[in-house]
Amino acid sequence: MRYKFLILTLFLSVFSFSQGNLLWKGYFSYNKIYDISESTNAIYGASENALFIKGIFTGDITTINSIDGLKADEISAIYRSDSANLTFVGNSNGLLLVVKSDGSIVPRRGIIDEVPVAPTIKRINHFYEIEGKVYISCDYGISVFNLTTLEFDSTYFLGPSGSYLSVRQTTAKDGFIYAATNNGIRRASLANPFLEDFNQWTDISGFQWSGIASSENQIIAARTDNKIFRYNGSAFVEQVTLSENIIDVRASNNYFIVTTLNHVYVYNQSLVQIAHILSSQIIDIPVTFSCATVIEEIIFIGSNENGIISIPISTPTTYEFIMPDGPVLNDVFRVKKSTSTLWALYGKYNRNYNPYNLEPPYGFFQYPISKLTQEDGWDVIPYADLFGAKSLSNIAFNPNNENELYISSYYSGLLKVVDGVPTELLNNTNTGSNGIQAPSVDEGSRINGPVFDRSGNLWITNNFVAKALKVLRASGSWESYDLSDVIPETNFESYAIPVVDKNNTKWLPTLRNGLIAFNETSNKSMVIKSEALGNLPDIDVRCVTIDNRNQLWIGTARGLRIISSVDQFLSQDLIQTRDIIINEDGLAQELFFQQFINDIAVDGANRKWVALADAGVYLVSPNGQETIYQFTKDNSPLPSNTINDIEIDNVSGEVFFATDKGLVSFKGTSTKPEETLQNVYVYPNPVRPEFSGTIKIAGLTDKAIIKITDIEGNLVFETTSSGGTIEWDGTAFGKYKVASGVYMIFVSAQDAVETTVKKVMIIR
Question: How many CB atoms lie within 10 A of CB 451?
Fold first, then answer.
């Protein structure tokens, strides 16, 4: 069963940055809500590292994420200030991001850089605004932010002798500020200019508190023993005891709202219960709650699974899900693109190929699958439909039937999916004596790959068994190949994703034994390791890929190597890999020396995208001698420097980066070249005044010659394609923008036999 809900329209934002002014897209998850805030006409929802805003009266929904410059780490609190027309985004590491009315985002690192406490206690828990200042509750105390200067004013440490004290929430009433802490409630006069002195704060109640909120009439506070109290001016008086831990308490629109994991309680000013929402009322999908508020007599509840839930107070049996279209989770382990669908997998293993103890949000690595289609947007295949397949690690599309695909499970076998529906789980119980093996009950059938060869045979690796290489023939039969001749201890070996070259040789990356090459036709196998047996910088090979010149690029835990031609395996008994030496600041350096390489992908122009562990992604020239781009979280919309996977759509040139903090893409120009010039096209066309990107000419053959002239025949641009697409910035050889008018595009193939002419209209 698939779940589909009312998803409001999402307008994807476009981010232009300094390295080429090209387009980025974000594919973020908005399912898990960390906090919500409100203005008079909108609800603000914060997911892990992105925001969305839904207009109460218009129904419009917009997003703010890394594409827009919101470089959040992990959002822990948000606050919308209508008076200052600002939105505050607090993070678990103390980073404060201020979103201004013009869309610009101002980072404030005062808590991170200047507050003299351990990084582990800099979490921002709550914002409270009064008299032109925002009081920021943190795990060490309170920091005060000035709305006029947009700078931090001061910091208050409220513990004994000025020690650190975790402040969960603050509020103010009748000239006093109140702070709910993990060791009592403190109070001080807002008029007191010496609040940095802990002696100016009075302890008015002991115990541990989880929240405090006030209205015009009274103050309520939530204690960690699930009790709600009302302040009578001299003491806190118990009012209600709830059945679960209180995780959020706030006041909004003359209501007090208290949230637990499975309940939301709405009280009026006299603490009379007006509404009670249970998670079990949401019957479409199991949900739990994280926070809630009330706007215009509608309860808005942040859920941990499916965005914001809106429920009218007058009809609490009706509800609606609110969230932008997106994948289920941000931590995408593998992303694969077919012609029509983008697939995202979350089941993972760590650097030692261990799928356990990863603390997934869906239990013991019981992840669903997300898929994006142009017609339906993002959809989810829930774990319940996967026949128990856990830790899904990679996808292979059947070259003879794109609607049939296989997904390797690094615990349960091989999942077959037809027309988007899982149909069968292949494992040791149903593939025969030559099929998938399970070395033990505890280890499961750890399968990686899969990959098709040119004949439609499907190859996989099977960890911890002697016959580690297996193939599902196009005929439907299984075969297994013993690798114990080249690997001394096959029962302890783990494999990354293999590739198959034009000669049908299988190249298998391993954790402990370098790179294995195997060809069943020639009955030949070879191991390529360190020093004398292959010159690898490390025996831990993380990834391999074959470029457009049949060179094998090898990424290891400590650097890069290449094999000049995969044909060497057929003619040589020993292959020595080689490094790439580049000139850096006048010194000879090894490209990616000692770097942990997560993935390598080859685009249509034979350039290499290289993902480094915790260091972002590089685009290098076909021979590796030139760095074209280096994208990190600091200089690009990447939400994280940890790139799990790279996938390239060779038709559009879009390059997808699956990170541990979200999926983004870079609209590249290196698409796969066409065989002829019959399908050359130009976009956008016409080019309107508001367009700020580059003009693309696509559908080209490799090394095609492109000349652009104005209507009078004056040459304004000339280039040669590398791949299937080139771009033009709309200037005359980079000097000045061309004027409005029609421009002629003359294209000829490398041999000049085939030509075509296109037109583009530019409107300034």
Answer: 20
State the sign of the Cα–Cα–Cα–Cα dihedral 61, 67, 72, 73: positive
**In the chain, where the domains are located:** 327-495, 681-762
Q: Which residue has the tokens 């090459």?
A: 517
CATH number of 681-762: 2.60.40.3110
Q: Which of 254, 247, 259, 258 is nearest to 270 (CA)?
A: 254
Contacts 24+ apart (CB under 8 A), 738-744: 738/710, 738/762, 739/764, 740/764, 741/710, 741/711, 742/711, 743/708, 743/709, 743/710, 743/711, 743/716, 744/708, 744/709, 744/710, 744/711, 744/713
Amino acid at 202: T
Question: Minimal CA–CA distance to 663: which of 319, 260, 332?
Answer: 332
Of 232, 237, 274, 125, the residue nearest 223 (C-alpha): 237
* Alpha-carbon radius of gyration of the chain: 29
pTM here is: 0.88
Q: Which amino acid is at 42?
A: A
Q: Which of 156-170, 453-467, 574-588 is least confident?
A: 574-588
Cα gap 617→597, rounded to integer Å: 10
119: cis peptide before it, omega within 30°? no
Q: Which residue has the higher pLDDT, 66 or 752?
A: 66
Task: Report the distance separating Cα 744 and Cα 559, nearest Å.
Answer: 47
Separation in Å, CA 107 to CA 69, 72, 667: 10, 9, 27
Question: 310, 299 in Cβ contact below 8 A?
Answer: yes
Where is 255: in which H helix or E strand?
A: strand 255-259
| 530-to-341, 535, 539, 540 alpha-carbon distances in Å | 40, 5, 6, 10
Distance of alpha carbon 160 from alpha carbon 169, whole angstroms: 19
Query: d(Cα 487, Cα 287) in Å, to the nearest integer?
Result: 48
Strand arrangement, sheet containing 133-138? 124-130, 133-138, 142-146, 151-156
Break the chain down into helix, strand, coil percent, rounded to 5: 5, 45, 50
In 602-738, alpha helices (H): none
- Residues 598 and 595: their CA atoms lie apart, in Å, by 9
- pLDDT beyond 60 at 9: no
Q: Specify the pLDDT at position 674.
A: 87
- The closest of 268, 270, 205, 272 to 236, measured between CA atoms, is 205
CA 691 to chain centre: 27
pLDDT in the model for residue 727: 85
CA–centroid distance for 754 within its chain? 43
Helix (H, G, I), strand (E, B) or coil at 490: helix
Q: What is the rounded distance in angstroms from the CA atom of residue 13 to the CA atom of residue 261? A: 33
DSSP state of 112: H
Contact 65, 50 (CB under 8 A): yes
State how far the Cα of 542 lies from the Cα of 494, in Å rounded to an integer. 11
Closest CA to 91 of 54, 50, 61, 150: 50
Residue pointed to by tokens 């016409």: 686
Residue ranges with strand state E in 375-523: 377-381, 392-398, 401-411, 413-418, 421-426, 445-452, 458-462, 469-472, 478-481, 499-500, 506-509, 515-519
User: Cα–Cα distance between 759 and 744 in angstroms, integer?
Assistant: 5
Q: Which helix (H) or strand (E) holds 570?
A: helix 568-571
Residue type, 752: A
Q: What is the DSSP letter of 536?
A: B
Distance CA 511, CA 542 (A): 7
- How does residue 668 score in pLDDT terms, banded at 50, 70 and 90? confident
Task: Report which of 736, 592, 735, 608 is spatially closest to residue 668, judged by C-alpha positions.
Answer: 608
- Give the whole-angstrom CA distance, residue 504 versus residue 457: 10
Among 160, 168, 107, smallest CA distance to 141 is for 168
Q: What is the DSSP string of 332-352?
A: -SEEEE-SSEEEEE-----TT
